[in-house]
């Protein structure tokens, strides 16, 4: 009996277990828990990897930024401290001096190259569990600063109005300081200056005139008449037979044979263009001799400034180098537009363009006529000796002030389109003159409107900025 009861209980227990197993197998509650746990583990792993990678990038960025700043400061040619000490100080201040592995310095009188590298190991917090206990972080950098080549045209106004208010004296002082600042003894052969004084005309000088193959009408002076079309381009074409300008002054003697004193084309040798010079003493001596002359033709000064930076002018320069008139360092200048030289113009005036005049061909055809106008004031003599109805037979208006402004705008645009950096200085100018000069500059920030002694600061600022632009990094 007992045995039978035991067997019954066992059978019931078995059925209960089977029933429970069947119910368990069919139960759906909690089925996603294992899957959720699995994906949570994956998500935590991925997030952990992201945290480690982000930490690695933060450290790498800090090291690289510190290194970049350090080598740039150390490579600065104005930096007086030992370059390696500068780099180490940057890393020390950032608290990562131990990361710095190597600093090398290569320097000369006109260049400095600083190279540095850094390395560190960053322990991981999550990736170590899958076999990556640390990241190696590397940083490398190279900074170079050197004095590059520069071709500068310095265009200065010597018109009659420069004789007032000590303007010519202040120009001399400012221009001489400019020369001292941009031409450095340690950068010989790098920087050349074309000094271009202008009034109603520009005295190119006989050496340039002869090399441009310009037929001479006279030997009194050496100025060129550019056609209006020439102001639309940067080039002074050595194959074009430009016309020589007449030698005269508008107002002066009506009798006698004394030479005119204030010709529209300056005739003194110290008023000639000084081409591609790096002789600081000679440039400053020439600047010291500048004096006020006739009217204002800004566009002609600018045309010469641009033309002497155009590669088409190179045959003239090479010929003058061969004749010992230009330093041999500048053979091959002006360089090609893509040659890497900084080409820049500083254009200065104290006024604005005015009407310009010329002598008619019939009044300037013979040597005796040319001699006559070399000793008489053109308008003064004509008004004193010629009936009003016939005066147009003697002189004419070559360019109105408005036309000259348009020519200036054209040649300024040609310069900027070619990549020439144009600075302009309006020295005690009116609003119209200021607007014209501002439009000529490469940007409004490249225009300076100054009064009195402020011209020195304007030239000083331009010189400082040019020195920075000459640096290559």
UniProtKB/TrEMBL annotation:
Ranges for domain VWFA: 151-466
Transmembrane feature ranges: 31-54
InterPro entries: Tad_N (IPR028087), VWF_A (IPR002035), vWFA_dom_sf (IPR036465)
Keyword hit for Membrane: yes
Short name of any one Pfam family annotated for the protein: Tad
Keywords: Membrane, Transmembrane, Transmembrane helix
Keyword Cytoplasm on entry: no
Name of protein: VWFA domain-containing protein
Organism of this sequence: Pseudooceanicola nanhaiensis
């Amino acid at each position: 009996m007992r045995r039978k009861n035991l067997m019954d209980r066992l059978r019931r227990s078995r059925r209960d277990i089977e029933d429970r197993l069947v119910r368990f197998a069919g139960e759906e509650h909690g089925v996603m828990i294992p899957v959720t746990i699995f994906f949570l583990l994956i998500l935590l792993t991925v997030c952990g990897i992201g945290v480690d990678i982000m930490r690695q990038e933060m450290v790498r960025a800090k090291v690289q930024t510190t290194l970049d700043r350090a080598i740039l400061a150390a490579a600065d040619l104005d930096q007086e401290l030992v370059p390696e000490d500068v780099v180490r100080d940057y890393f020390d201040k950032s608290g990562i001096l131990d990361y710095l592995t190597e600093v090398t310095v290569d320097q000369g009188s006109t260049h400095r190259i600083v190279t540095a590298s850094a390395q560190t190991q960053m322990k991981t917090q999550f990736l170590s569990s899958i076999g990556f206990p640390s990241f190696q972080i590397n940083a490398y950098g190279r900074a170079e600063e050197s004095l590059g080549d520069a071709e500068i045209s310095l265009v200065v106004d010597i018109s009659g109005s420069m004789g007032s208010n000590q303007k010519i004296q202040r120009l001399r002082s400012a221009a001489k300081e400019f020369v001292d600042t941009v031409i450095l003894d340690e950068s010989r052969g790098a920087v050349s200056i074309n000094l271009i004084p202008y009034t109603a005309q520009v005295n190119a000088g006989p050496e340039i005139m002869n090399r441009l193959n310009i037929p001479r009408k006279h030997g009194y002076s050496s100025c060129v008449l550019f056609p209006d079309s020439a102001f639309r381009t940067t080039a002074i074409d050595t194959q074009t037979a430009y016309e020589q300008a007449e030698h005269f002054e508008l107002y002066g003697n009506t009798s006698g044979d004394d030479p005119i004193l204030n010709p529209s084309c300056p005739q003194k040798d110290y008023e000639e263009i000084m081409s591609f010079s790096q002789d600081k003493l000679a440039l400053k001596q020439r600047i010291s001799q500048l004096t006020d002359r006739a009217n204002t033709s800004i566009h002609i000064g600018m045309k010469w400034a641009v033309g002497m930076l155009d590669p088409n002018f190179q045959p003239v320069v090479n010929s003058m180098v061969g004749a010992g008139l230009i330093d041999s360092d500048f053979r091959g200048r002006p360089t090609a537009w893509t040659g890497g030289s900084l080409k820049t113009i500083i254009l200065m005036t104290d006024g604005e363009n005015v009407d310009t005049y010329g002598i008619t061909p019939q009044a300037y055809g013979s040597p005796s006529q040319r001699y006559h106008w070399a000793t008489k004031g053109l308008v003064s003599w004509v008004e004193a000796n010629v009936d009003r109805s016939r005066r147009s037979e003697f002189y004419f208006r070559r360019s109105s002030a408005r036309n000259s402004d348009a020519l200036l705008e054209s040649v300024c645009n040609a310069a900027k389109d070619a990549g020439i950096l144009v600075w302009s200085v309006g020295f005690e100018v009116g609003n119209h003159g200021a607007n014209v000069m501002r439009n000529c500059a490469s940007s409004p920030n490249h225009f300076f409107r100054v009064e009195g002694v402020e011209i020195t600061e304007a030239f000083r600022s331009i010189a400082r900025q040019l020195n920075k632009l000459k640096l290559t990094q």
